[in-house]
């Protein structure tokens, strides 16, 4: 398995890229597609669009621990195949829906079948040598980032040229490609474990050196996702205000929205290497401090150029946080529990996708748009306060171990 890790990394990077693109391709026009499925007033349309968007993540949050248990019993490659095949069917079926009710049901089922990316992460994490694990996880993370970045652009072009339904057919075909590429080119050496022989989760946490760390990482994942998603409902409105309701709002909003992902793409492998060299716990705490500073600064922006600069800096923070979370899980979770722990982490990520936009919308409705960033900074501060003592204990433990070895 160690000898296959680079091969798996390249193939699963492609799978993550296609999955990330598939998830994001239909996002830009989802409200417009919902609108085309009936005659709704503005309030009803907003509610239905919100439900159609968030129900996938809600279903994912609920079901992920169950899939994680099966991953630890039967292997992570099988879960990647299950996920890609399920999404092939459900996303393609979305292109044939007669009404919004059918769309919401299929979007929920799509969430129930999700899990490709976290199982791909578990495969690479289990096989990559520890000395390069941070770089491997950082590189793998860029696949999802690039796909998520390109998805809205390609989906928008397809919808404009061929109609909304065509995008669903294309995404379904893409996920079919992911299924077959994973089936034939991902190699996982895994011995199935009988259900009665599986280590219970209570025992897994009992055997961990830093059990609180894992809960801290779950919370960090939720906060990262909630922070990134909190601005989604109001970003174009904020840009419009900063442009004084003139200029090319849609274009500028698209650029501002994509900046963190572009910066993460180029910096994640480098910061993953730093994680291998200096320790992921140090990179994680540094990323949280940078996130607090960045979101605080964004709450005082007065023009789109300032907003763009700080959104780019946010990409560095994300590039530090994402691989560090994965590397710490790899280092302090028993391998026989990888599937369950990575799937629980995906549940927290999905919860962040639901909580973030809701909080952002509420804060923006009560206060000014910039206050959304201050709210996010406060979330990051509490995250840092919870995680820092654990991270400090880890690097002090490493320092003590080096003294003993010397």
Structure description:
- With 406 residues, the protein is mostly helical.
- The protein folds into 2 domains: 1-187, Growth Hormone, Chain: A, CATH 1.20.1250; 199-406, Up-down Bundle (Growth Hormone, Chain: A), CATH 1.20.1250.
- Helix content is 82%, strand content 0%.
- It is built from 16 helices and no strands.
- It has helices spanning 5-25, 30-36, 42-74, 76-94, 100-112, 116-127, 133-162, 164-185, 201-207, 211-230, 235-242, 249-278, 280-298, 304-332, 338-366, 371-405.
- The mean pLDDT is 85.
Mean pLDDT: 85
Number of domains: 2
SS content category: mainly alpha
CATH superfamily of the largest domain: MFS general substrate transporter like domains
Protein name: Multidrug efflux MFS transporter
Subcellular location: Cell membrane
Transmembrane segments: 9-31, 43-63, 84-109, 167-186, 213-238, 250-271, 283-302, 350-369, 375-395
Main location: membrane
Key terms:
single chain; 406 residues; mainly alpha; Growth Hormone, Chain: A; 2 domains; 0% strand; transmembrane helix; membrane
Describe the protein's topology.
Layout lengths: L4 H21 L4 H7 L5 H33 L1 H19 L5 H13 L3 H12 L5 H30 L1 H22 L15 H7 L3 H20 L4 H8 L6 H30 L1 H19 L5 H29 L5 H29 L4 H35 L1
Describe this structure in a few short sentences.
With 406 residues, this protein is mainly α.
